Amino acid sequence: MSRINFFNFSAIALVCTAGVYTGTKFFEPIVVERLRLDGNLRDDIEVPKYDENGELIVAEPQQLPPKPSEFLTDKQAASSNQEQSDASK
Asked: What are the Polar residues biased-composition ranges (predicted)?
């Protein structure tokens, strides 16, 4: 009998968790846009941006600065690599 109760409880917990997750994903763009229109959106935290269809707008990733070894000439890079391999031994 307790097995049936556990299965019922686990099924209800799974459905509730899925409902909260999908509801949050569905209503988040609507709530963010309404707060932005009302002027009540906080400026001190980063808020994701959505397009008119509610799809998340992903910003282009920033490129990392080039490595210092890319500025070295081939001769300097070879000697630098040799020094690093000697130091690791």
From this structure: 76-89
